[in-house]
Design the sequence.
């Protein structure tokens, strides 16, 4: 399922009608900030999971000895 040019134009027109031209930049900034925060949180969780995995592997090695 992909969006074609007519669908994108329709979506843009609906957004303009709902929010008005003045609020569009504000909404775009908010979406950009939210996306940035999501990426930061995702990376933090990934690093934490890797640290936990390393800790678990070290504990498993010590218990084998």
Sequence:
């Amino acid at each position: 399922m992909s969006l074609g040019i007519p669908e994108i134009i329709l979506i843009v027109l609906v957004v303009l009608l709902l929010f008005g031209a003045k609020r569009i930049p504000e909404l775009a900034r908010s979406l950009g900030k939210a996306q940035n925060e999501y990426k930061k949180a995702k990376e933090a969780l990934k690093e934490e999971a890797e640290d936990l995995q390393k800790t678990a592997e070290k504990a498993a090695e010590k218990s084998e000895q």
About this structure: The helical segments are 5-19, 24-64.
